[in-house]
Amino acid sequence: MTAPATHAPHRSRLQPGRAGFVRLLRAEWSKFWTVQSWLLILVLAVAATVGISQLGASGTTDDPNGGPRSAFAPDGTRVDDSFRFVHRPLTGNGSVTVHVSGVEGQADRSPEPWAKAGVIIKSSTEPGSSYVALMVTPDHGVRMQWDFTHDRAGSSATARWLRLTRSGQELTGYESPDGRRWTKIATVRPADLAKTARAGLFVATPAHRTLRRSFGGTSETAGSATATAAFDHAGLRGATAGTSWTSTDVGAPDPEDPDLPESGPARPVPGSTQITGGGSFTLTGQGDIAPDQTGGDTVQMSFQGVFVGVLFMVTLGALFLTAEYKRGMIRTTFTASPRRGQVLAAKALVIGGVTFTAGLVAAALSFSLAQDRLRSNGFRPPAYPDLSLLEGPAARAIVGSAILLSLVAVLALALGAVLRSSAGAITVVVVLVILPQILAFALPLPVAEWLLRLTPAAAFAIQQGVTYYPQVAHNCLPESGCYPLDPWNGLAVLCAYVAVALALAVRRLRGRDV
After folding, report:
1. What Cα–Cα distance (Å) separates residue 15 from each residue in 18, 19, 21, 24, 341?
2. What confidence tens digit (pLDDT) does each residue in 229-269 have?
3. Closest Cα partner for 402 from 359, 348, 350, 355?
4. Within a 10 A sphere around the Cβ of 297, how many other Cβ atoms?
5. Is the peptide bond before 382 cis (omega within 30 degrees of 0)?
6. What's the rounded Cα separation, in Å, for the pair 219 and 210?
7. Is residue 183 part of a domain?
8. For residues 256 and 117, is the Cβ–Cβ distance under 8 A?
């Protein structure tokens, strides 16, 4: 008689804990995909995000290319480049030195905090050309700036003697309190400085802006400002022999331009120069040398539907756990998997992965379709460059929006475990994420800024596509898509809330029976 064949029992190659968690993940994955209503919510979330983003883009128009000619920096950044400039040609190496004896505003007000007066070496008088400038400002001390987007603070806020030296393609800035003891600020290499550049003195001042904000809305008005700077002991070494000082209003509009108002504060006032001998000058001018921060954020405007998509993801995250409490299935789940922390982790990974994938699809579609709509509404090159999915700000905003949607779903899941109520979890997340955004549109700006720093609503900063430079005065308005925190720092605030909520959820699950 033949003995029956025996088979060795199956042994998993995974460690017991790991094998159990993988099976748990599969179980939670199966739960999600077998509930048709959850799949419907996911589809509606994608559709609503894309649809609302298209509606938002359709209602926004602009046509900066039809107005006055814009200036663009060597790297393509749209910039302001208009100022009063007294200059001489500088071929090759040389230096320009001056003492700034004072900067004044218009008769009825103080100079603007970022009014500028000092020395500059610029590739040409053409707006947007490469430059390095060393300046005195009323409220920000001595600054060294170059090619519009770069800014370096001086070591002393009281220095008034300035010197800018060129050696090849490198320029070095120095400051001094008395004209004898000089302190180096920095050595920089501008992008495209001509062999024969223009060197001299300049004055500029940004527009005067007034912000009125109340529960009824926000209004921001800008009026032209004028600055007057007095210089003495001006000296230029290395200038072309036999040349005299020339005064230019860089970036001044054509006085015959039909788009210019015939009179009023919006019409630019030509600058003036007075030379009193002995290297003494008095310059009066308007304008600014800085990145142009007045345009719309075409990246942020492409994701207005994410605000609505959050509501769907929050609902999905809360139901993924609270539905089991409501139906009594959670006892079966915890009986099959006694390690409740692992159950929560598996649910968080599943709902986070599903919502991230759906959010990524929704964000990519929203951006691509909204960009086409925005271009047809006037947001076209050169004022607004074409952006692709893979470019830095766009790629970060797309991936960041998907992360945001997945994090709010996990936050709702964790709060569902703490509160054991889908309505309660959804309400708390909406209050934390959505309500601050709404209140920020109406509260006083300092309060609104702190609200968007301390609540999970800070995560919407990940959609910000415009770089706000500290050397440019601007009001960071939430309704304009500006957030007080950097994009990744804003997202980190939401991550911190999620981490705390998950920790509370684990403690609640382990500390109390179902």
Report:
1. 5, 6, 10, 14, 18
2. 999 999 999 877 567 899 999 988 755 554 555 554 555 67
3. 359
4. 18
5. yes
6. 8
7. yes
8. no
Q: What is the pTM of this model?
A: 0.84
- Read off the amino acid at residue 420: R
Backbone dihedral region of 128: left (phi > 0), alpha (psi from -120 to 50 degrees) or beta?
left
Six token digits for residue 202: 């300049």
Residue-wise pLDDT tens digits, 137-184: 999 999 999 999 999 999 877 789 999 999 999 999 999 999 899 999
Same domain for 103 and 237, yes or no, is yes
Phi and psi for 256 in degrees, rounded to 5? Answer: -90, 5
Evaluated on CA atoms 288, 179, 238, 155, the torsion sign reads negative
Burial of 385 (0-12, 13-18, 19+ CB in 10 A): middle
224/314 same-domain check:
no
The CATH number given to whatever domain includes residue 140 is 2.60.120
Total number of domains constituting the chain: 2
Q: Among candidates 257, 261, 162, 174, which has minimal Cα distance to 203?
A: 162
Q: Record the tokens describing residue 361, joined without a space.
A: 């699809």
CB 309 within 8 A of CB 45: yes
- What is the phi/psi pair of residue 288, to 5°? -155, 160
Same domain (yes/no): 152, 248:
yes
276 and 322 assigned to the same domain? no
Domain interval for residue 269: 71-253+264-291
